[in-house]
Design a protein that fits this description.
By secondary structure, the protein is mainly β. The chain contains 1 helix and 14 strands, in the order αββββββββββββββ. Helices cover 14% and strands 45% of the residues. The strands form 4 sheets. The protein has a 5-stranded antiparallel sheet, with no helix packed on it. Strands 13-12-11-8-14 form a 5-stranded antiparallel sheet, with no helix packed on it. It is elongated. Keywords: Signal.
Length: 155
């Protein structure tokens, strides 16, 4: 008897947990998890697709939550709705600004130059301190000026 009462409770609790995990304070940073992500004009599959992203790892700012949907803003300032499960809480960044950005061996202008990174390059964001952020693009790691990255700081 106890098992019949307890097992449905566990199943219900397991189903309820992900919804609670979706509750976050906005705005917050996220990245695109899917290889194809439809940006819609409203929070439902019934709304028109406004744009299609094909860049997993692209950072986005989540600005509103609604029942499994997220209103996001991309690095260009475009806003629209996406399915929440296709976003990841992993932090990423995209190189912005004019010209090549220096990726250095350390968090200093005096550190050895490892690579030069073009605007539009997407990578994994690490810790940021004193105006520099750890940044990894594929198997290349280094430090990039925080001012050259979108997806850092308070959203």
């Amino acid at each position: 008897m106890f098992a019949r009462l307890f097992i449905p409770f566990l199943l219900f609790a397991g189903l309820a947990a992900p919804a609670g995990a979706q509750d976050r304070d906005v705005p917050y940073w996220a990245t695109i998890r899917a290889s194809v992500l439809n940006l819609r004009v409203g929070p439902s599959a019934d709304y028109k697709i406004d744009w299609v992203y094909r860049r997993p790892g692209l950072p986005v700012k989540v600005v509103r939550l609604m029942e499994g949907w997220r209103l996001i803003e991309d690095p260009d300032g475009a806003r629209g709705w996406v399915v929440a499960r296709l976003l990841s809480p992993d932090r990423g960044a995209i190189v912005i600004g004019e010209g090549l950005a220096a990726m250095r061996a350390g968090a200093s202008n005096d550190a050895a130059l490892k690579w030069k990174v073009e605007p539009g390059v997407v990578g994994v964001l690490g810790d940021c301190d004193d105006g520099w952020c750890e940044f990894a693009v594929e198997n290349r790691r280094g430090y990039v000026l925080e001012s050259r990255l979108w997806g850092v700081g308070e959203p």
